[in-house]
Amino acid sequence: MSADIPVPAAPVPSGVRPRHPRFAVGVLAFCGVVVAVMQTIVVPLLPHIPELTGATPAAASWLVTVTLLTGAVFTPVLGRAGDMYGKRRVLVASLAVLVVGSVLCAVSSHIGVLITGRALQGAAIAVVPLGISILRDELPPERVLSAVALMSSTLGIGAAIGLPVAALVVENFDWHTMFWVSGVIGLLDIVLVLLCVPESPLRSRGRFDAVGALGLSAALVCLLLAVTQGADWGWTSPRTVGLLATAVVVALLWGAYELRTARPMVDLRVSARPAVLLTNIAALLIGFAFYANSLVTAQMVQEPKATGYGLGASLVVSGLCLLPGGVAMVALSPVSARISAARGPKVSLALAAGIIAVGYGVRYFTSHSLWLIIAGATVVASGTAIAYSALPALVMRGVPAGETGAANGLNTLMRSIGQAFCSATVAAVLANLTFRVGGRTAPTLHAYQLVFVIAAGAALAALVVTLFLPGGRPAGAGTVEESRKAPDTRKEGVRTEELQEGA
Q: For residues 147 and 14, what is the distance between their CA atoms, to the nearest angstrom?
């Protein structure tokens, strides 16, 4: 089976073309930050949800779990839809879903409505791989690396910004306020995209693989439900084991179907190439390593001083500990692009994995000082910025232009799966290594240090995987330029259907 061949889209009427496409990079990056903020915005609120809504703690935890599930399911699906039907069109639809989800959360305190709204917010994470695909199609080759580096880094930037912003809102305003604000910003994003972001002229041929999309979704839901809920249900419980077994069976059946269909949801033959497969494995490991930093930093500094290591910090202070890391990610994304342009994204990713491991080494030995904790967390975030910038460059180097959206969606999915496994691992470690202090149970210092060791191990494993990646020319030098040799039908008036029939 051959890979999809990108074909030019139908002409875009001049009256609806964006008037300021030069602002596209900034607009898309802003959209990426907004949807990434949505992933962590409820974390400071979780301890208060039972009191505010009357829900159980188990039900409250679904405000995070459901976002992870829908993000994992919709990211590759919408990436593929963007390749076929128009990346900007699908991106705008994703932002509209974010707005609807935000409004649902803003107008209700019922846990069922909140979970539904959070599910819709999670689906919008597909904005990031769609934005990467648009940038690849629209920018000149010399600008692709820096723009894609910034767009990819928004996942980490938003996660770092979301916690302190949410903490400030929770402590000073009605908690519904943050959802109203996110809805208004989502509407602003839609307007900016329509004004400043051009529609990509490239399309993939064929029909959408609905069966493949359903099979992938079923396998992911079973896997992630088992991973995220296993600690509460019990790792050997029939529910957890049954879901894991179902995920394996569905994945095998899905893979067999994808290999036989003419236009698959995920081209497994392309995904099995070492350049793509190893990049996705590295993405999973980097996602695991990065997420531990976000999960434990705020909790650790909030632990009471009676623990012997806790600092008794407030919710806002604990959230602000991650803010310097977000600033570092913004500053380092262009640095990563320059390294990738000069040495290749493989070197950037290897360097990033090493930096993350060093950052956790700092965290291991400096758990009693707020400023050294912030320094260690910032080092980890800096390595993550370089890694997240290099990953899409490696993906684009290994896939055809017509599969950029789906391929980057799959890579983003692998990061999310890594984060899910990290969340389960951290929860298990902190729940099993505890002691009694001040009438309450708290994790031991060794529990946190063990998390740092595990996360550093994941980063070093990513480094090893990266060393086995094939070399080659930097992304943007070949495939992007070659894809632009297709005629621009926005000027020539050639219809997509006619080109497909001719092909």
A: 26
